[in-house]
Amino acid sequence: MFSDRNHTCCFTGHRIIEERHRPLLPGLLEAALRELIADGYYTFAAGGALGFDTLAAETVLSLRRELSHLRLIVVAPFAGQPDGWSRADALRYERIREASSDFICLGASYTRDCMRRRNLALVEMSAACVSYCLHERTGTSQTVGFALREGLVHIPLAGRLESLLEAEI
Q1: What is the pTM of this model?
Q2: Per residue in 90-102, pLDDT tens?
Q3: Under CATH, what is the fold of the domain 5-130+144-168?
Q4: 143 pLDDT higher than 70
Q5: CA distance 141 to 120
């Protein structure tokens, strides 16, 4: 499927970003990506979901204007992923997909385990994982668990956000 794991970082995060995190998350994400780029990462893999995946993919595309060697891979769990989304969200997905360096679609249609397979594929193609994980028993926490078991470098943005917010109090 993909052969440059040592220079690849995947993303995992919730579809809903907490209101209190919205002002700080984009800057924190960009800073984390710049750290990874300085460490030799240049390929970033996103699952194409709403929320954090979309923010991460758009951040990579924004950085690519400055650093043209960056690559974005979108790994979709199934062909109709944006079906049922709002028109604006579906158009945003298509813009990201078209601007990506590569698009991998793991299945023709939705299945009970398609999200899990996508999450596992993201981890298997990566050496690092940037997460926005606040809740247990979610696909995001499952993906973080996969990443930790595989020994990926893990950058937990939710923890960094909470530390920043506590420092402001």
Answers
A1: 0.94
A2: 999 999 999 999 9
A3: Rossmann fold (3.40.50)
A4: yes
A5: 12
